[in-house]
Specification:
By secondary structure, this protein is of the alpha+beta class. It contains one helix and three strands; from the N terminus they run E-E-E-H.
Length: about 70
Amino acid sequence: MTNYRLVQDPGADSLYSGSAYFSDPSMSSEPIGEARNVYGKKRAKEEIAKTVLAFLMKWAQANGIELKETD
């Protein structure tokens, strides 16, 4: 499971910064992805999610797991 930690900029209510963490430390104990000063909470989370997806794709490839796109 991925947990997102977002913080609102104290000087600008619409700007958010944050990163994602896996609840399972064996995946990574470090933050995955990072967004800084992104306009809107939803957009900040989406930006972080892109890097989480890239991380998971690399992890799957390194572990011999084939991923298939579905509709």
